[in-house]
Amino acid sequence: MNRTVTGLPKEAAKTRRIVRELEHVLGMPVPPQKKSPPLDILIATILSQNTNDINSHRAYSNLRKQYPTWESVRLARKSSIVSAIRTGGMANQKAANIQDVLETLAEKFGSLNLRLLSKQSDEEIIDFLISLKGVGKKTAACVLLFSLGRDIFPVDTHVHRICNRLGLVHNCNTPEKTFDAMKAILPRGKAYSLHINLIRFGRKICRSANPLCGICPLYKECEYPGRTQYRKTTPAAEDSKVDFMLLEQV
Ligand code: SF4
Q1: CA of 6 to the centre of ligand 1 (A)
Q2: pLDDT tens, position by position, for the chain (250 residues)?
């Protein structure tokens, strides 16, 4: 890893600049005061896999409405859980994974509660969570960040794409590899800010198809080979329907 004159790896210094720039243009994301219990976040994140926010939110709300306790989800017929979460897609697989997770927790702890995790280290929690069926590093990292308030940076496919385009990581061909590489270069205390702002940035500017490179505030930092081409095809800022102030409401 190349080092800058300050002694930081080049990528760590660049990550700091990008965190600052995104906070400048998109605002400083503030974590909610009241955090949801870890098991709620775990199940909500399983439901969010391979679908959009609206559909996964509908699936989660529907599940909670029909089954207000996790114990009732564990004991329900799988087909009833499948219909409750159908709007989230891949309902068969997600229902099976959710019931398997709940069954494992009941056997292991005798109750459906993950609060015990709060006494463990980040690594111990991740190792435990990824041992559960259908739980990968991104899902585990979401539990750490959003429920336990740890400084852990979840990497989904969108965050993975942008970190690679910007050149924060190199030769990372999976979100898991990007997650591991980002751990070494993330400025302390900035996991929440960078995660939220990269999700916003990926929705509005650095989209998977047709990124708006022509109005991108990170253009000078970017190493994506297609950026010069996309710059030419980006609509003018006034036509691109991008309003950074609106992003604060996302
Ligand atoms: S220049 Fe284009 S590819 Fe690079 S970060 Fe900006 S929008 Fe994404």
Answers
A1: 26
A2: 566 555 568 999 999 999 999 999 999 999 988 899 999 999 999 999 988 889 999 999 999 999 999 999 999 999 999 999 999 999 999 999 999 999 999 999 888 988 888 899 999 999 999 999 999 999 999 999 999 999 999 999 999 999 999 999 999 999 999 999 999 999 999 999 999 999 999 999 999 999 999 999 999 999 999 999 999 998 876 555 554 433 233 2
CA of 210 to the centre of ligand 1 (A): 10
247: Cβ–Cβ under 8 A, 6 or more apart, which residues? 26, 27, 200, 204
Domains of the chain with CATH codes: 10-29+154-247 (1.10.1670.10), 38-147 (1.10.340.30)
* Nearest-angstrom CA–CA distance, 76 and 73: 5
226 CA to centre of ligand 1 in angstroms: 9
Which residue out of 26, 166, 199, 231 has the highest number of ligand 1 atoms within 8 Å of its CB and is therefore the one to mutate?
166
Contact status, residue 184 vs residue 143, Cβ threshold 8 Å? no
